[in-house]
Amino acid sequence: MTPEQRAQKVISGDVRAAARLMRDIDDNQPGWRQVLKLLHARAGQARVIGLTGSPGVGKSTITDALVERFRAQGLTVGVVAVDPTSPFSGGAILGDRIRMQRHATDEGVFIRSLATRGHFGGLTSSARGVVTVMEAMGLDVVLVETVGVGQDEVEIVRMADTTVVVTVPGMGDDIQAIKAGILEAGDIFVVNKADRDGAGRTVNELKGMLHLSGDHSRRAGWEPPVLTTCATDGKGLDELVSTLAEHYRVLSADGGQMLAQRRREGLRRELLELIQAGMMEYLLERLDQGEGLAPVIERVMAGREDPYSASENILASILGD
Amino acid sequence: MTPEQRAQKVISGDVRAAARLMRDIDDNQPGWRQVLKLLHARAGQARVIGLTGSPGVGKSTITDALVERFRAQGLTVGVVAVDPTSPFSGGAILGDRIRMQRHATDEGVFIRSLATRGHFGGLTSSARGVVTVMEAMGLDVVLVETVGVGQDEVEIVRMADTTVVVTVPGMGDDIQAIKAGILEAGDIFVVNKADRDGAGRTVNELKGMLHLSGDHSRRAGWEPPVLTTCATDGKGLDELVSTLAEHYRVLSADGGQMLAQRRREGLRRELLELIQAGMMEYLLERLDQGEGLAPVIERVMAGREDPYSASENILASILGD
User: Fold this and answer.
1) All structural domains of chain B with their residue ranges
2) For A153, which residue in chain B has the nearest alpha carbon?
3) ipTM value of the model?
4) CATH 3.40.50.300 fits A44-258, yes or no
């Protein structure tokens, strides 16, 4: 099948073609970029919502509840669950199947897990690609759920129009558990499992951190609220949905200038990542053509060269300076 | 001061010069690489031990206990606490001061926190640099403590000769809480707070995951043990110290072939990271000289170009293909 045919199938709503393309993206199979190039003109139509938080805070439960509520509004929903913590690639797929069952008879929901690791810029690039595919499928809302603990995950949530940061009371040292980048990236903070001891303290700590952090450039005109939920029994979820709607209204005000600005920033990051990944591919190819790193490593191990000088020499030879 | 003078001061044990150099590394101030080039010949003499785990599992308590025990053996100890979760740069420094007080009168202990973010390859590169400085200072053991949750942290623990992965019973979904890369990188696993419910189950789950994961190439001849500790009351720490010694004996057997192989792998990663960071610097410089990304972003926003083609075009223009 040509890239054009594959793209056309995705746009016409062929779920199997879309699923195959997403798998190719996750596995970094050749050819996916050609299809994505054709799909890109269809992107930018969906509302992209990021959910992030440590393992065990209840992100999946909240995601599922949001899916139900968006469906009740008549919106179609895509879910991208990014799980780099899954030690076995089968884990994510199994998780997909279990979660899919809840929505198995609902054609308005499309769920896909990603567990890519190991290639440069892999996870962020894959997640963006899968979001683009979901947008091209015509889904109205795309929820991107990540374990929000590393730099990769911060990058991923930054591609969203709205980022929800989920935490729970009493996660050891609460302040430590929120990364600086995530604090800055969050538009809405949720303290889940709020029936537990210490929920009020966690809310106040978060408010204090948000007040102190000061970097509100990303969210001019929006004071990030701190909500409380008990996702398992549904408490606070309607307020989360209405707060999400309110944030989208703020982003879309004045002809959508804030939304466009946010997407510009996301695009800048995406371009830099793509260029970086391309440079690394070029570098590794050039190293393969030459003597490779092995003799350099031996020279450094023997103390005849230091790694800083060695890397500068390699760079100079590759870039021709 | 010339780089030669700065290097000489560090080698001669000038603590203030070493501290200043580490701060320059963390802040990526110009000049630190020149000094590191000169210090590198002094590296490779210390035993480097990595400790990693989620926030709140008790890494700092274990680290402090190890410092005491190594000091009792007459060894000098450096601690590099990598804390990218700290939302305010002051946090790490304050933490340093508090922790330093315990060892304030002990000249055989040197503690340094790192919170670098934001420059390409920043945290890993900084951590390696600080370890090199500590080795050049002549410290016998260097403990690198990281919040082991993101890809950066996996890279950091991979620079250690021995990696200790710390977890606690009942961290939500226990299996999710251990990243695949960390499972592969771990030489010794510790279930801390083992007086809590579920400790036995966590130990068994870890053993099962280690058995299933199968990737033992990094640790030929070493079956990673799963230990239990209660660091706050000292239980299990002597066993941890003796297991660390045992692992170092295995690494050093047969003329230290395993140790050398591990350091070769670490060096390969370091070189690739340094080259990647250098390429990104070159890229950003070239972009600044040209039209930059702004017009490209506008073309993509307007749907006249897709990000994949745009990044390919930029790469081709920079690399001259």
Assistant:
1) 43-257
2) B150
3) 0.84
4) yes
